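Q: My collaborator sent me two sequences in one message, no labels, and asked for predicted structures for both. Can we handle them in order? The first one she listed is below.
A: Yes, handling them in the order given. First sequence, followed by its structure tokens:
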Amino acid sequence: IHKFNLFITNIKPLKLNNFQIIILIYAVIFSVFLFLSLPGLFNYDKYHEQIKKKTLSEFKINIDNISKIKYRFVPFPHLLIEDAQLKLSNDQKSTISQLKNLKIFISLIELYKNKNISIKRLAIKKTNFYFNNHTFYLFNQQLNKSIIKPIEITNSNFFYKNKSGEVVTISPVKKLDYFIDFRSKEKELKIKGKLFDTDYKFNWNKNYLNPEKINLSLLFRNPNIQISNKITLKYKQKYNVGNLKI
């Protein structure tokens, strides 16, 4: 530490005139812009399979029939997929959406270094999702058992179909956050939306330090109703125990 401090004190301070400072600032800005924009020259068609494998292993969802990938670096570096299918398993019957605005936020360091796609999070906007008994069961399994990276959905619509394929429930979703907080070791699903023309907030929480305990709450406005449920999963007995409050 003493030698390092001595080295710092012996460095002569740079003396720059105004012109040199301006040139330095422009050089830094140009370097940053070049670093952020160069991936726009890459051919992302060859990354289709890699994206499919990454989203399956890290988000436990299937992104299929990918087309029209563009690179954008505002507000953060990401790939914009304009068209793709979202499935909850390999089965075509598990398709829940035809994605039109999927943003895949990536690591530029990993892209430059290893030419690999390293996904940080997914963001979906203005998309319709269609669920039925089968796909809802698949999502519930994923919710309870899978380790995932963050997924964000905004300004979208959730539809629920009955056995006849008729839409029986529509829920506009203003924002959905689905993630794991590795500091607190908690998995969370948070939704703000509208159901039966009433605003609601839904929170689902599971702590991996006590994975058999699940907490969920549903808060409606106008009428003002709050539903909370604490569930204890009984895997060996194949039944669950809950404490429901309204």
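Q: And the one she listed second?
A: Here it is, processed independently of the first:
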Amino acid sequence: MKILVIRFSSLGDIVLSTPVPRLLKEKFPKSEIHFITKKAYSSIYYNNKNINKVINFNNNLYEITKKLKNENYDLIVDLHNNLRSKFIKFFLMKPSITYNKQFLKRWLYTNFKILLKINHIVDSNISTLSSLGIKNDGKGLDFYLNKNELKKIRKIPINFGNYSSLII
């Protein structure tokens, strides 16, 4: 199975999407997973062992959809749910599942301070996968570093700043 995960931005939302590839890989161990995001955020996924390919989106929908069409995906996981991601799904014409933004609830809270149960973004990302029988594994977020980055971090003194309890 070949899966495309879409999340263009922003940095925090990209980080909060990291359980999704892990859960997909656990459910479909032989799958090939590609992740498309803006170039500025793609480094979050470069060393992720659950991602086979990171695709940089440069805001040119025509160019990227042409490129994606050649990949022949079996499934699209849309964690962005905006006009650009809808255009890509429409153009690729493949089965897809889409993140529920809970727009009405968020709008009511923001504009009228009406307290409604709004899922955390991580939980909403994971619930996007529920139709595949995937549930939260409780392992939290993923963050992978390459060997050079790990070497740099290990050189930071243990009592550096307020991070005296940092253990690597």
